[in-house]
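stuck on this chain:
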Amino acid sequence: MAITNLFSKRQKALRKEVPDVYQYDVIPPQLRAQVVHILRDLFGFVGDYDLNGCLKTFKQISDILCREYGVFCLSSNAREHIDSQVVDFLLNRADHEQVIDTIETSFSIAKSRIFSNSLGPQIPSEKLEDAIAEVNIRFREGGVGYQYESGEMIRVDSQLIHIAIVKPALMLLRAKEYAGANAEFLKAFEHYRKGDTKECLNECLKAFESTMKVICKKRGWAFKQTDTASTLIEVCYQNGLIPALI
């Protein structure tokens, strides 16, 4: 779905009413409604005999979230179709973390439907990519500091840092040889979101060490699998990967 640059948006930009500082603990009603529109584009509405897989897909979303939250229903409107229950949850009941849970769960299920038609017609990969792109734009427009990358919603503390450092790192880590480092990096993000600083730093160190080992292996530099970060940094210094300090 294309993003329309409405007159009201342009006027807000001219009046400098566009958020320039991210918030993290509140997802405004407008953004929640936009998320619902995006999920409807992906999964549709209840059709004749549910030919589009709407009910099956939203039921899977609901089942996963209900089990993890330890509840039996996401909405007080238990008599409504399951898709309407998920929509009610997003609009009226979910806190900011639960909204993010719902987005991650929905995109994960959408990804599975690219390769399988068990829940309904297969979803073209381009359709999911469009949905992800729109979510990221809507969150940025709303001044809410999260972005969907590499299968997860991650916190964006600075758009400049994210564009210049985090996003290139994530793109690099998608390569097959960096699979281990990528898993450790994403674990670090998860611990960071939970406020577990110690575990976050441990996973960051693991990802850093794994990345250096891959680089050393690719370039034929001598190292041991048991080498720690300090040893690996020295190997990188000796071979000119890191410029020498003057």
Observations:
- Strands lie at 146-149, 152-155.
- The first strand starts at residue 146 and ends at 149.
- The radius of gyration is 21 Å.
